[in-house]
Amino acid sequence: MVNHYDANTRQHLRVWLKLLKTSTNIETTLRERLKKECSTTLPRFDVMAALDHHTDGLRMTELSDFLMVSNGNVTGIVSRLAESGLIERTQDTHDRRAQKVCLSPSGQAEFKQLAQRHAQWIDDIMQPLNTEESNTLLTLLERLANHKVDKND
Fold it and tell me: What local confidence, expressed as pLDDT, does residue 73 receive?
């Protein structure tokens, strides 16, 4: 098969594949450490992190939107966290039909410990990069994230 891509396109494809592989490897490492060392899952950690970020609580739809997953994915996790006493459900003061969820005091304490371990793991993973390299990588990734691609192209 003949490669019809120019050098720039080939380089962009290599960068994309390296980003994907690196992201997958980091996520796999985090999943394994959370399971092995903390007896929890990455989705559970993500829900707790979102609620830690939104201390006033979130409606289920808001939580799904924030995590960029379906309501169905979040419902089971929230139910299990509530059964464990880590999440509290309250009536939404603006919409009586809706409930808000937030971390309970024990959920806040557990998440604080998880977040400290998570931060250390990320620091360990990123150790090969010095501060200047991290800043450069962050700047480049932000440029890519902010680039709007015309969907008709």
Answer: 85
Looking at residue 34, its pLDDT comes to 97
Annotated domain spans of the chain = 42-122
Whole-angstrom CA distances from 55 to 26, 52, 102 are 27, 6, 7
Kindly state the tokens that stand for 103: 């971390």
Contacts of 105 (CB under 8 A, 6+ apart): none
Pair 101, 61: CB distance under 8 Å: no
Residue 134 is predicted with a pLDDT of 97
Helix runs in 39-150, H state only: 42-53, 60-67, 71-83, 105-125, 131-146
Q: Which fold has domain 42-122?
A: Arc Repressor Mutant, subunit A (1.10.10)
Token pair 């994309």 in the structure block, residue: 16
Residue 1, both tokens: 């098969």
pLDDT at residue 2 greater than cutoff 70 = no
- Where does the pLDDT of residue 3 fall: very low under 50, low under 70, confident under 90, or very high at 90 and above? low
